[in-house]
Each structure stands twice: as structure tokens, then as C-alpha cells.
Amino acid sequence: MTRMSHPRTALALSGACLAILALAAGPPAARAAESAEERGLRIATEARQNDKGFGNFTANLTMTLRNKRGQESKRELRLRVIEVENDGDRTVFVFDRPRNVKGTGFLVHAHKTGPDDQWLYLPALKRVKRISSSKQSGSFMGSEFSYEDMGAVEVEKYTHRFLREEDCGKLRCFVLERVPKNKDSGYSRQLVWLDRDELRNIRIQYFDRRNTHLKTMVVEDYNKYLDRFWRAGRISMTNHLTGKSTVLNWKDYEFGTDLDLGDFTRTALKRAR
């Protein structure tokens, strides 16, 4: 397992994407002729393809909520993720602590196009509540992450544009702009920093519907699993309008578990403990 001191989350292919990917293997002159949109789409597609083939994995997380005065509260939860052929990943979060959120479950069926399907299980009510597309910009369990942020990021859900290349800490990064196609998105656009060598998310800036810089996510402490898949040890989200922040610390990644699609249904969500 290789450890990096600097910075997961996400970015299958349609025929059009295959044509753009072919540019990567072409002569320098062909690549130089790319438009900013073509180059942005190619880089985003390559980044997403780099993470394909993991099958499934589980992990444990600590979520730290911090208000603008620096006061903190912590939550512990578990994550399960499974790949779905010709569609987006499916994800389940289950909260274990503290007692007032214990047993709460969150299920995401991500899709390559169109809004994700999302459900929240509330143990006090013993029922599963659907999160409509128009509500996915809301706060996820009181954190600075929105419901929209919690699913897999699929390339087809955005338009992409290459902006520049620049240093980001000790790394060299591509900077892309992506614009959500979903009219219900809480964001007008996002700026994404991907490290040039591995195409991992290093930083994302989120702009609200008024194009105000709303939040920044920083991804760091990457580890490499199965000699191929990079996963972060820490993801932080800072809200620049409220002064609040949320940190997710990840540990105990395990790949190739006995999960199947039956573990990612609304019925299974009620049983998740």
C-alpha cells in the first residue's frame, strides 16, 4: 500500500467519449487541436475510468461537524459501495453513533444521466423517506455536505471545460470547470483540481445558483489499494458563507467483500444495522 502526503470522490463511456479518449493516444498535434471543452471532457473521463473495476468496498468514517465558533460534534458511520454495470454506483451510509442518529441509513442509486435516486431511513419513524431531486441540495444530516454531494460523480451529468494547469501544494494539477446539467442542482458550477499524474480529486470549489463561492472541499491523505485504486483518508468541506465545516475521516477500507445488489435496496436499508 502506497501512502501519499497529499490528496476520492469521483469523476461508462459512450461512443462519443471513446472518440475523445482516442485523442490521448494520438499524436501531439491532434491533442493540441483539442478545444477546452474536449480536453476537459477527456481528462474527466480518464479520471473516472481510472476508478472503474473496484467491484465493491466498505469503509468506516468519523464525521466531525464544526460550527463557526469552533465547537465540534462527532458521528460515526459505515459505508458500502457497489459498482453497477451501465449505471452509476450504489451507496449505503449507516450511522452508529451518537444514540440520536443510531440506525439512520442513507441509500443512493447514482445514475449516469438524470438525478440520483436517494432514500433516508429514519429508525424513530421506522420508515424510508425518498429524497426528491428538488431537495437534494439540502444538508446531509446537518453537515456541510449536501445530499447531492454524497453520490458518485458521473461524467455525463456535467459539461466540462479545461481551464489551466497549475501547482497545487507539492503536486501539479489540471483545473477543470464542470457545470451540472440537472436543473435542480444546488450549484451553478464547480472548479475541480485533479493531480496531473494520477487524476485524483485534490480540491473542488462549489458555486451556488447565484454564482457565489459557497463551499470548498479538500481531499487528502490518499492511500492506494489493490495497486490501483486511490482512496482518501480525509475529506473536508468548508462553507464560506456560514463559517461551518465538516470533516470526514476514512479508515478500514476493504475491497472485494460479499456485498451484492440485494444489499442496496429500500428493504435492505431498513435492516442495515
Outline of this structure?
The chain is globular, with a radius of gyration of 18 Å.
Give an overview of the whole structure.
The chain is mainly β and about 270 residues long. The chain has one domain (about 15-270): outer membrane lipoprotein receptor (LolB), chain A, CATH 2.50.20.10. Helix content is about 15%, strand content about 40%. It has four helices and 15 strands. A 13-stranded antiparallel sheet has the order 6-5-4-3-2-1-15-14-11-10-9-8-7. Strands 12-13 form a two-stranded antiparallel ribbon. A hairpin with a 4-residue loop joins β10 and β11. α1 (about 15-25) crosses α3. It starts with 14 loop residues before the first helix and ends with a helix. Mean pLDDT is about 90; it is low at about 1-30.
Estimate the mean pLDDT confidence. Answer: 89
Strand content: 35-45%
How many DSSP helices? 4
How many domains comprise the coordinates?
A: 1
Measured distance between first and last alpha carbons: 30 Å
Specify the biggest β-sheet: 13 strands, antiparallel
Helical/strand content category: mainly beta
Which CATH first-tier class would you pick?
Mainly Beta
Helicity, as a percent range: 10-25%
Query: Count of DSSP E strands?
Result: 15
The CATH architecture can be named as: Clam
Spell out the CATH superfamily: Lipoprotein localisation LolA/LolB/LppX
Low-confidence stretches: 1-29
Shape: globular
Rg, rounded, reads: 18 Å
Oligomeric assembly: single chain
Major beta sheet, strand line-up: 6-5-4-3-2-1-15-14-11-10-9-8-7
